TrEMBL record:
PROSITE patterns given in the database record: PROKAR_LIPOPROTEIN (PS51257)
Start-end of Basic and acidic residues biased regions: 233-242
Keyword Signal: yes
Region (Disordered): 26-77, 232-263
Residue ranges, compositional bias (Low complexity): 40-77
Sorted UniProt keywords: Signal
Signal peptide feature range: 1-16
Protein name: Excalibur calcium-binding domain-containing protein
Amino acid sequence: MIPKLILIAGALGALAACQPAVPDSGAQPGVPGRGVGFDTSTQAKQQVTQQQVPAAAPVQSSALPTAATSAPAPRPAADPVIATAESALNNSSPATAAANANDVENARAASLNSGAGVVNASPANAAPTLVNNPGISDENDFGAVSSRQSIESDKARIAANRAQYTVVQPTALPSREGGNQPNVVAYALQNKHPKGTQLYRRLGFNAANKFEKNCAVYRSADEAQIDFLARGGPEKDRKGLDPDGDGYACRWDPTPYRAASGG
């Protein structure tokens, strides 16, 4: 029994010797055994002491500059109203100095504008008088209009306006210039069958390619339909513009013309 325990202890010791050592992530040269964690070494304390925040610079106090007083508004040299107000201000007592200073400013302002006095913001002052205010216009003034117009005069004016009306009677549309060119509008209104309904017999080889090639020549579907009718359509289709035989060439659609006429 004892030899077995000795063998087990020896095997465990061999395994422990083969185990790699765990590196010390916090180790530095000359500082063994610190391990992982906060640095409490003497060298770290010295670094913190050397990197102290410098003291703030002292603040020196200085007096604020005095506000510059604005120069008085320019005024005429020989203005008796301003001169009287300034004389009263210079000879006034401290109790009446504010009121006299206000009189001086009012006199200066009056000399620079149209002559109207300054209205100070005070509940005791009356509202200023409105100048050149015509008020409501004469056309919107019921009293002014009723003095000139009456129900009878309104009836007479309406009758005079109606007498000037001219009713234009409808006339036939003028003939279209260009000789005997087919009219696609008249053709659309004369034929009531929808697009795609075959009414005419069509024969031909490679009709699809012929249709695409010949229709690409025209600038619009209306132009293609006009040429189709001028060449004997819808009964004849020499150029293959109407392969399905509905009488409408190159995807021309009569529906917009019928809708415009109410049909």
